[in-house]
């Protein structure tokens, strides 16, 4: 039996602007494309717990426009120049990116500098995106098994803000004032709370000068201070039942609160999750799906987060197989790993 472990060295250049913006550049001239992206150190865990969902809301709101980009034009400019774009928000961070033909690098930097320097945050945009977020919640969170992460968070976290839904409560967004949105933006969206990444068909030295051209004038923001409450250790098993009228097949969900993704344990758990459920040759798939025919599907996820990870084991029973039977079989494999 033999195998290969492949690793790729990625060369990069990194530096900080005087306003605190951290910049990472990676030159790869193998294809005439470039990606400009910004990650803000703000996510669902940040902010007043009576105003949840602000980070995800701003993921949408910051596409509304800027002093130099008309309302709704942001999402027209990019495809009109041969590009694609997207954004996403987790409990820990918000990420925006655009991919362009490499001769549009300067356009990508200008767009992100506009988003950072002087976005338009007004009541029209807030009202528009409030409806967009509500529709997203209906489509994604109210879909079959869409409440999975919500149930996980509610049972694993009691005091840390991970306990709250990333998308937030709609009543919180409805009650929020324009002034509260503006204050949130001022707190978290400064250059010193962000990382700019440019990767692709670039000239590193030329790109450094372009970054300075478009981002040097952005004023430094507030220093973000976090002091989240710590969770007490989980000392006994907790059994919880959640109901979802949108599903017909019950799901077993066994989960553990584990150290954050920067810890050594997190890397070990990544390997364990791969061993247990990655592909049809994995331990749990062969046992529960192929050999014993007790499950339709099984999966192990090590969800990486800054403060605490979630290690979750999911299984869908085949026919009338009890969930407790699946749990017993899964625990048996976990104990083999432990021993």
Please describe what this structure looks like.
The structure is a single chain. This protein is α+β, with helices and mostly antiparallel strands and 339 residues long. The protein folds into 2 domains: 203 residues, Metalloenzyme, LuxS/M16 peptidase-like (Cytochrome Bc1 Complex, Chain A, domain 1); 87 residues, 2-Layer Sandwich (Cytochrome Bc1 Complex, Chain A, domain 1), CATH 3.30.830. It is 37% helix and 19% strand. The strands form 2 sheets. A 6-stranded mixed beta sheet has the order 1-2-6-3-5-4, with helices on one face. The chain has a 3-stranded antiparallel beta sheet with strand order 7-9-8. A hairpin with a 4-residue loop joins strand 4 and strand 5. Helix 3 runs parallel beside helix 8. It starts with 12 loop residues before the first strand and ends with a helix.
Descriptive key words:
six-stranded mixed β-sheet, alpha+beta, 339 residues, Cytochrome Bc1 Complex, Chain A, domain 1, three-stranded antiparallel β-sheet
Q: Biggest sheet, in brief? A: 6 strands, mixed
CATH first level of the largest domain: which class?
Answer: Alpha Beta
In total, how many beta strands? 9
Major beta sheet, strand line-up = 1-2-6-3-5-4
Structural class, please? alpha+beta
Q: State the distance separating the first and last CA atoms.
A: 24 Å
What is the level-2 CATH architecture name of the largest domain? Answer: 2-Layer Sandwich
Arithmetic mean pLDDT = 94
Low-confidence stretches: none
Computed CA radius of gyration, to the nearest angstrom: 23 Å
Helix content percent band: 25-40%
Number of domains: 2
Strand content: 15-25%
Order of helices and strands: EEEHHEEHHHHHEHEHHEEH
């Amino acid at each position: 039996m033999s195998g290969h472990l492949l690793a790729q060295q990625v060369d990069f250049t990194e530096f900080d602007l005087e306003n605190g913006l951290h910049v990472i550049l990676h030159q790869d001239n193998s294809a005439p494309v470039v990606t400009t992206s910004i990650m803000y150190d703000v996510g669902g865990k940040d902010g007043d717990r009576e105003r949840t969902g602000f980070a995800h809301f701003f993921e949408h709101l910051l596409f509304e426009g800027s002093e130099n980009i008309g309302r709704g034009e942001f999402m027209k400019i990019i495809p009109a120049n041969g590009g694609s774009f997207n954004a996403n928000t987790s409990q820990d961070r918000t990420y925006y990116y655009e991919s362009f033909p490499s001769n549009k690098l300067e356009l990508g930097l200008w767009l992100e500098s506009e988003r950072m320097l002087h976005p338009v945050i007004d009541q029209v945009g807030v009202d528009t995106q409030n409806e967009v977020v509500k529709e997203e919640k209906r489509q994604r969170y109210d879909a079959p098994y869409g409440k999975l992460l919500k149930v996980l968070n509610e049972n694993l976290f009691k005091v840390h803000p991970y306990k709250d839904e990333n998308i937030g409560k709609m009543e919180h967004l409805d009650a929020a004032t324009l002034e509260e949105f503006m204050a949130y933006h001022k707190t978290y969206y400064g250059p010193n709370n962000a990382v700019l990444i440019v990767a692709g068909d670039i000239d590193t030295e030329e790109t450094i000068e372009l970054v300075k051209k478009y981002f040097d004038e952005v004023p430094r923001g507030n220093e973000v201070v976090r002091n989240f409450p710590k969770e007490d250790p989980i000392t006994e098993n907790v059994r919880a039942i959640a109901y979802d009228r949108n599903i017909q097949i019950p799901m077993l969900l066994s989960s553990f609160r584990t150290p954050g993704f920067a810890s050594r344990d997190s890397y070990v758990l990544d390997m364990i999750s791969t061993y247990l459920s990655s592909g049809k040759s994995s331990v749990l798939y062969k046992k529960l799906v192929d050999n014993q025919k007790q499950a339709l599907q099984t999966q192990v996820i090590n969800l990486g987060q800054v403060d605490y990870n979630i290690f979750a084991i999911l299984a869908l029973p085949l026919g009338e197989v009890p969930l407790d039977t699946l749990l017993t079989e899964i625990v048996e494999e976990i104990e083999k790993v432990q021993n």
